[in-house]
Every structure is written in structure tokens, then in C-alpha cells.
Amino acid sequence: MYIRATTSRVAALAAAMLIAGAACSSAGVDDSESAIDDVSDEVDDVSDDVDEAAEDIDEAGGDLADVLADNGMESLASIVEEIDVTELVGTENFTFFAPSDEAFQSLDAGDLADLLADPTELDDVLRRHIVADTVDAAALSDMSSVETEGATTLDVTVEGDTVMVGDATVTRADIEVDNGVVHVVDRIFVDA
Fold first, then answer.
1. Rounded Cα–Cα distance for residues 179 and 86 (Å)
2. Which residues contact 148 (CB under 8 A, 6 or more apart)?
């Protein structure tokens, strides 16, 4: 996203320089200074528009660990900070069924300590929460099941406004992150 914004800014500046150069060659010195000032104002306006667009893009998604922390999932955010989720997925686009802090607190302290101490098991558990495609809430509600990167098939059921994935309830949906979407769930998919 930043590269596109920077490329747009460079293109706008190059166009402005060409316009200013053309204005300078066809006008007198006083007219040239006025033309350069006008073009400079236009470049500033374009630059401001590009900066605003880049900010809008940044607000639409973000780093997974930061988004999780910003949405009250500190336990999971601290785990995700240490790994690259896209490596677990094998693709850039993903859906992450993110267990809430309450889900982590519901685990036995010994089981949680064992899980956190075993990187292979932790990766396996996280893969059970990841789908290798972006599935928003509307699409999820139309599905009967999802296949996770942990080779687990989770049934999807909808009753009224409640959506369940496996034995977990989706408590919050469609949190945008870079390359994907997060749905908060109230359980951890520990067992395969």
C-alpha cells in the first residue's frame, strides 16, 4: 500500500515538474514564477490527497498482532507477535478465528503452560483457527463448514444472529487485518 502511495506521489511530482517546465519555456520570467507557484500549490494538494488515502488504507487493516491487542485479545496478540501467521497459512489471504482472552482463561493453567512451551503444538493449534482464504461474516453464514489449515473441518451453524464454528460461538466478526479478516470466538480449538 505504501509503495502505491509513494509511486502516486512521484508521478504527481513528475507531472508537476513537466507542467512547470512547459510554462517556464513559453512565458516570461514573471509569468514563470507565477506558474511555478500555481503548480506547487497543485502538487501540495495532490500530496495531501495521497497522504489522506494512505491513512485510510492503514485504518482499514493492520498488523495482526496490533489489531488483536487493539481489540482486547492481549493473550493471543502476545503469541502472534512471535510468529508469522502467513507462514502457517501458506497464502497471504486468510481468516483467523481468534480466541478471546476469556477462551484462554478457560483453559487449565497447566494445559495452557504446556501449549505455550511446545512451539510445534502451538503452531498446530493456531492452524486449526486459520482458513486460507478471506471469509467475511456474510460468506461464513452461508457455509456449512470450513476447512482449516490444521486439516480440521469445522461445522458452521447459524441460529438467528448466532454463528457457531465448531463448538465456538463467533462473538465479534469482520475485524479487518492486512491480508485477511478476524472473527473472535469464545473457545480454543485445542483438539484435532
1. 9
2. 127, 128, 129, 130, 131, 154, 189
Q: What is the pLDDT of residues 98-135, one digit of tens each?
A: 999 999 889 888 888 898 888 888 889 999 999 999 99
CA nearest to 57, candidates 7, 6, 4, 1: 1
Instruction: State the Cα–Cα distance between residues 43 and 83, nearest whole angstrom.
Output: 41
CATH 1.10.10.10 fits 64-185, yes or no: no
pLDDT (tens digit per residue) in 55-66: 443 344 568 888
Could you tell me if 169 and 160 are in contact, meaning their C-beta atoms sit under 8 angstroms apart? Answer: no
Q: How far apart are CA 117 and CA 37, in angstroms?
A: 63
What's the burial of 38, exposed, middle or buried (CB within 10 Å: 0-12/13-18/19+)?
middle
Domain boundaries, the chain: 2-60, 64-185
Query: Does residue 171 contact residue 182 with C-beta atoms inside 8 Å?
Result: no
